[in-house]
Design brief:
alpha/beta; six-stranded mixed sheet
Length: 141
């Protein structure tokens, strides 16, 4: 009986995760309409700190344990949460750079990206977006 319950729970959780996608949002004043996986990695790891128009990038991350962050780590960064944490510990020690601010809710993510002209963050696909932010296309190139 325990095995059947476990299998049902596992199928329920994995089917939810397979169906969910993430979207990337930027401040609506940002002229960028598409971005590549590589650029997202460079922005997140602060290898590139400015948008093409010279505005400073402010990347907002999601908190650990959320499904949307797991999708971001798996599909964009291609790293585990532990690997990312270790990277940022090293950066803090050697360069003084800190990890992107972690945001716990969709509404706070939208609010902060909308407030910072160079802001970028990610949400689950079904999130309804108000004025102040826009979705950018993510390309493979």
């Amino acid at each position: 009986m325990f095995i059947l319950k476990f299998l049902f729970f596992f199928l329920l959780v994995t089917s939810f995760a397979w169906g969910q996608k993430i979207i990337f949002i930027v401040n609506s004043s940002n002229t960028v309409s598409r971005i590549s996986h590589d650029q997202l990695q460079d922005f997140y790891f602060k290898r590139n700190r400015t948008w093409p128009n010279g505005l400073p990038i402010r990347f907002f991350d999601r908190t650990d344990g959320t499904e949307v962050r797991k999708l971001f780590l798996d599909n964009i960064l291609k790293k585990t949460s532990r690997q990312v944490d270790q990277f940022w510990i090293g950066q803090k020690l050697y360069t003084g750079d800190s990890a992107p601010t972690k945001i716990s809710t969709n509404s706070l993510m939208i609010n902060l990206v909308g407030r910072f002209p160079g802001g970028i963050g990610y949400l689950s696909e079904e999130t309804v977006l108000p004025d102040g932010v826009k979705v950018i296309e993510v390309t493979e190139l």
